[in-house]
Amino acid sequence: MADAVEVEQGCLARVRQHFRQELDGLRNAGLFKEERFIHAPQAADIEVEFPAGATPRQVINLCANNYLGLSSHPEVVAAAHAGLEARGYGMSSVRFICGTQDIHRELEQRLTAFLGTEDTLLFPSCMDANAGVFEALLGEQDVMIADRLVHASIVDGMRLSKAMQDTFKHSDMAHLEEKLQEHQDKRFRLIITDGVFSMDGDLARLDDIVALAERYGAMVFVDDSHATGFIGKTGRGTHEQKGVFGKIDIITTTLGKALGGASGGCVSGRAELVEMCRQRARPYLFSNSVPPVIVAGALKVLELISRTTERRDALEENTRCWRRLLTEAGFDIKAGESPIVPVMLYHAKLAQDVARDLFAEGIYVVGFFFPVVPKGQARIRTQLSAAHQKAHLDRAIEAFVKVGRKHDILNKSKKAITERYGL
Amino acid sequence: MAGSNVIEVTLPDAATPTREDIEQLEATFRAIVDLRFPDSRDWQKVEEALVIDGWTVRSQLMWVAEAHKGWESELATGRTKSEAFKQLQQLAKIDDVAGVP
Hints:
heterodimer, A: alpha/beta, Aspartate Aminotransferase, domain 1, Aspartate Aminotransferase, domain 2, 2 domains, seven-stranded mixed β-sheet, four-stranded mixed β-sheet, 14 strands, B: alpha+beta, two-stranded antiparallel sheet, 2 strands, 43% helix, 14% strand
């Protein structure tokens, strides 16, 4: 008995030792992720405790996916409270046993109308939607052809499918066409892309993709998580912006960003495909759905954004303003039209140093570097919100300029920055 | 010295096999031996059970290509070596960049 205890302790010691070394490796490589505690509702101004134990300080939030500023909107909060009262806290069941309420179906129907599709199925998150959709729909006779910069959850979902995996160079239509020609022998071809790419903020060339899909008999899948609610004239998404509304076979999107920012996601598209997900998608079958409180909040969000485009218009204006301020100040930004505005710094440590100095100046942003973005492409990703006022952006640019001067990166080309700091 | 169940083949003096050559020769001979003198017929029982269960079963010799980097690893199979490597390339490339949430 004593021997068994010693063996167990020895085993645990080895496990601990192994993972301590792994964690040290992450720290040494600068890849260790630390949470920052927010002491307030999500908003443009938040109180952040960082590092842990420090006195919380007021900062301007430029890194949330709170694109429409609805995360703490009073009408959404009130609707969530009402939903909690009317339908309870949890379902204690998966959807197909006894975990579906009338409001789940109502939300699916409202999302279908908003996205311009035929049917919609809710998932606990868009990560789950992407994890389940490919396995449910495709088999070994099929091929998935994905843009090389698609979201990590799509990559995970593709890996769970038996279909052949292939990729095309980011937004390279000639390369996609080559791949479509190469895979004409497959039963189904599915082109997979993000609507708005989360790293660069650029939009997929959905008009060209749909044209290629029609020419080569392929289906089109779009993860529109960074677009639903605000991209396009009425905020329906990238397919609206690119003039292919109603032509996308499968859309996945999230309730965890612009649509209230809580959690939850969906698969929306051709009726038969959605129904097959209802029958086969494992994250749907083996997990509770979105709780009633979130469903009620999301219904209110859809009502608000269907009533007026005021918020997406304000976001568009903030985006234009912020891009102009950064450009005039001499920062190197990724061109585009989305509220994801990456400030390019190329060098990993420089990106970390600039983010730290901006935090000290009351601006909350995060530096991203390899392996999160390609080598030599380190940047600070700024994200706009309809909740930002002009005063927020003025204060933010003031801090950016101060920190930019300190690191001598204003009006400097990529060549000049990399010559000074390296890649 | 070779035992009674080991076959030794003398290579020509000019032959300087690489590690990969040796691995492939070994794999080829192992496949021939396994086809002719399988160490057991247990796989047949598995195959029969699966067929009874409604599966259509087939087995074939394939190339395996592996890649390792840190804690990540990828493995692909193919009827030809280039087919296996092509798939391996896709698997390795598909999350070359981790991306941001």
